[in-house]
Amino acid sequence: MALKLQLLAAAVVAVAASCRPGLADPAVGALPGLPVAGLAIGFYNESCPGVEDLVLAEMRAIVEKDRTLGPALLRFMFHDCLVRGCDASIMLESRSNKGEQDSDASYGLRGYDEIEQIKAKVEAACPLTVSCADIIILAARDAVYLSNGPRYAVETGRRDGTVSAKFDADNDLPPPFSNIVDLKTYFSVKGLGWKDLVVLSGSHTIGSAQCSTFASSRLYNFSGKGVQDPSLDKAYAACLREACEPGLEDDATAVALDPTSPYEFDLSYYRRVRGDKGLLLSDQALMDDRWTRGYVERMAAAASPDEFFADYAAAMTNMGRLEVLTGDSGEIRETCAAYVD
User: Fold this and answer.
1) 320 is known to lie in a ligand binding site
2) Annotated catalytic, 79?
3) Where is the active site (predicted)?
4) What is the per-residue pLDDT across 95-135, written as a single tens digit (0 to 9) for each?
């Protein structure tokens, strides 16, 4: 299967348009995964006490200044962890335009300056102690918390990688037009199961996507047939067509992934997907598999987000364990940005 990979979380930018009994498969759905040697909750308790409070304070200031940066920094973790693992390789730059930042998958990615801002504060308190990889993880957790989501415990102890390749980003990040088979394949290659997929997709309860990431596949040229996706709610589609021009490939107009509550970490994403109002094909694709559909339906009907919050903490922990560098591997950089060539 030849897969052209772009991104799991669609381009998260300022919202410029406003459209408004559980299954279990223990073979692939168990959460959480196995612990990773070298990672631990409170890893910096002695070497840099208070670092998590420091990161939260910086994140609070960042989000108060621009609330679109919360979802953006959550997306940032996905782009780091799903490509070469959680090693801050997304922060590395390439003079020859061959780094992860140069991939089409990284189009619209925001948060580079904010991660560097947080790193500078941490360096002032604890020089050459806390990795950029851990800062990205902590910032994502706090982005969720500052959107009224859970503030779950985060494992730390990662070290920073020194390799960043455009090829990896091109091939490791599922595009927004992925079907359910492709999505499960992308996740399984990373050692993540169907439950990680459906739970982490819930990140789309906050943030927005540019028209260029969904308009063609959802509104104007579904399956290359020049028609609207038949699975998309017709009233919602009409609203989206008011925001997204047909035939405009670089349309940067931003539409909320969950217009019901674009800055609230809640269950409305699942309710919209159940109602055929998932913005991306990859969102609506969750209804095409019995396991992911069962979870969507249960969350859509839930009176409380408690189960989702607990599952989200476990799924983010699983993603945070991907291909990490610990111990003597990797490095701790003074600044997160560095040239790889």
Assistant:
1) no
2) yes
3) 79
4) 999 999 999 999 889 999 999 999 999 999 999 999 999 99
